[in-house]
Amino acid sequence: MRTVYYPYYPYSFCWSDIVTTVTIVGIITVFVVGVYLLLCIGKHSDSKSDNVTIPNQSMFTVIEDNDIFCIVYHKQTKVMYAIAYGAFTLLVDENNKPMIYTEKEI
C-alpha cells in the first residue's frame, strides 16, 4: 500500500476565518461612522451661528433664552412671543388672548 501525502498549506482556506474578518471590519466601520456622526452633531449644536437673531433689537426684550428657543416681549405692547429657529410664535393664554408680560416682583 502506498501512502499519499497531501501538501500542507499554512494559510488554509476556511469560511469561518472570512466571516470573522468581515464581522470585525463591519464592527470597526460602524464604530468609525458612529463616532463621525456624533462629532458632526456635537459640532453643529455648539455652533454659535444657529443663535436666533432678533431683527430690530430695540423692539423686543428677552425674558428667557436657551439653546432651542427664546421668549421675548414687545416693549410697547408687552405682548409675548416665542422665537424658535427664526420663527416668531404668539403666546396665548387659556382664553386664546395674547399673553401680556407683567413684571414679577422678587
Could you describe the 3D structure shown?
The structure is a single chain. It is built from one helix and four strands; from the N terminus they run αββββ. The chain is of the alpha+beta class. It has a four-stranded antiparallel sheet, with no helix packed on it. A hairpin with a 2-residue loop joins strand 3 (80-84) and strand 4 (87-90). The chain is rod-shaped. It starts with 14 loop residues before the first helix and ends in a 16-residue tail after the last strand. 3% of the residues are buried. Mean pLDDT is 76; it is low at 45-50.
SSE topology string: HEEEE
Which regions are unreliable across 5 or more consecutive residues at pLDDT < 50? Answer: 45-50
Q: What spatial form do the alpha-carbon principal axes imply?
A: rod-shaped
Please provide the count of β strands. 4
Cα Rg: 32 Å
Average pLDDT, to the nearest integer?
A: 76
Question: What is the helix tally?
Answer: 1
Biggest sheet, in brief? Answer: 4 strands, antiparallel
Distance between the termini: 106 Å
Q: What is the strand arrangement across the widest sheet?
A: 1-2-3-4
Helix content percent band: 25-40%
- Counting helices, strands and paired strands, the structural category is alpha+beta
Proportion in β-strands: 15-25%
